[in-house]
């Protein structure tokens, strides 16, 4: 197995097409053609993490946060970023980052927080826009069933909890090939009317090339007529943040004790208590001030996130309890989740959970 194979397995499960535009994801350091020796999974890549990879015989670091976020103008070792990258290069260690692609995954960071808090009936808090496309094509009636199955097998026609979804209309197609054509139906320069089925299916945007390939491979016409358009429907499998419910509602102070225990944090900054019980919980790992309004719209009793500033707490406006548990604390279980995802995909290589605590924030 090569590093490129690992990347393909990761991106099949967590497509980087859904990372935010500002982000820097994918292979950041290293040669993807190198043979894989071992995988170290970490929240952050630091010099200490690279040292750990060296000690444990791993030449691939799968990191949540990217070590390279802004452009590097030099590699002289004057910053922790440059020193980390230099050490990785010197020891032939590849560094891969998943970051907001995992934030926006239905099995990603926020699902991991929900699992940790044992929330039920979870759904995406802020669905990402423009993640769905629609294919419409036209096929002879007797080929429609086989073409639909090929499109379904390529990943089309999945809508939340349903698969094999399509819409079909029977009609007549007309065409006439010129002297250079090789028509499957009829002859050159003959106006042909053919009973056809119009098939429409939805698909996630990252599968477009695979869907179009399946269309061409399973359609008999020399020139296939089709349309692909982007649609604005909400996609409940891609987006940031999640909202779910506790099995049993709790008083606000009891919930914060519960939160401290299950998220393993000693300090929580919060807005004023509203003397309400907590049942519906919104979460967003990392910096989540931008999600306060969405948490309110979702009728959450509490919003669990991090990096709230002084004035952000005013945004609670007696509608919701805001709970800031710390950036590292909100994402600390991400590397455990990544190990679980990779272990399901890769069976013959060591996948090691980093033991290095990379939290740069200390409490006195």
TrEMBL record:
GO terms for molecular function: metal ion binding. Belongs to the GTP cyclohydrolase I type 2/NIF3 family. A divalent metal cation binds at residues 65, 103, 327, 331. InterPro entries: DUF34/NIF3, DUF34/NIF3_bac, DUF34/NIF3_sf, N-reg_PII/ATP_PRibTrfase_C. This is GTP cyclohydrolase 1 type 2 homolog. The lineage of its organism: Bacteria, Pseudomonadati, Bacteroidota, Flavobacteriia, Flavobacteriales. PANTHER family: GTP CYCLOHYDROLASE 1 TYPE 2 HOMOLOG, NGG1 INTERACTING FACTOR 3. It comes from the Bacteria. Homohexamer.
């Amino acid at each position: 197995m090569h590093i490129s194979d690992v990347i393909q397995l990761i991106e099949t499960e967590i497509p980087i097409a859904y990372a935010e535009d500002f982000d820097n994801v994918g292979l950041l350091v290293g040669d993807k053609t190198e043979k894989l020796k071992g995988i170290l999974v970490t929240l952050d890549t630091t010099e200490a993490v690279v040292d750990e990879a060296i000690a444990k015989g791993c030449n691939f670091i799968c990191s949540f946060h990217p070590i390279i976020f802004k452009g590097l103008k030099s590699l002289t070792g004057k910053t922790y970023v440059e020193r980390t990258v230099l050490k990785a290069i010197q020891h032939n260690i590849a560094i891969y980052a998943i970051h907001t692609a995992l934030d926006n995954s239905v099995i990603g960071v926020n699902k991991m927080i929900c699992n940790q808090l044992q929330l039920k009936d979870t759904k995406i808090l802020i669905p990402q826009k423009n993640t769905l496309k629609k294919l419409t094509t036209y096929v002879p009636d007797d080929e429609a069933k086989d073409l639909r199955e090929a499109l379904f097998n390529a990943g089309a026609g999945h809508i939340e909890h349903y698969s094999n979804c399509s819409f079909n209309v029977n009609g007549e197609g007309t065409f006439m090939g010129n002297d250079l054509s090789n028509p499957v139906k009829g002859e050159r320069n003959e106006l042909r009317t053919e009973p056809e089925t119009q098939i429409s299916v939805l698909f996630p945007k990252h599968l477009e090339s695979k869907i179009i390939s399946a269309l061409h491979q399973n359609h008999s016409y020399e020139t296939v007529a089709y349309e692909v358009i982007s649609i604005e429907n909400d996609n409940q499998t891609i987006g940031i943040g999640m909202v779910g419910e506790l099995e049993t509602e709790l008083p606000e102070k009891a919930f914060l004790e519960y939160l401290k225990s299950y998220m393993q944090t000693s300090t929580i900054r919060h807005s004023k208590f509203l003397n309400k019980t907590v049942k519906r919980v919104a979460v967003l790992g990392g910096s989540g001030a931008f999600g306060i309004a969405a948490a309110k719209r979702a009728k959450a009793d509490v919003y669990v996130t991090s990096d709230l500033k002084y004035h952000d707490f005013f945004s609670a406006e007696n509608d919701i309890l805001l709970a800031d548990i710390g950036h590292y604390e909100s994402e600390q279980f991400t590397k455990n989740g990544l190990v679980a995802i990779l272990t399901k995909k890769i069976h013959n290589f060591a996948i090691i959970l980093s033991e290095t605590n990379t939290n740069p924030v200390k409490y006195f």
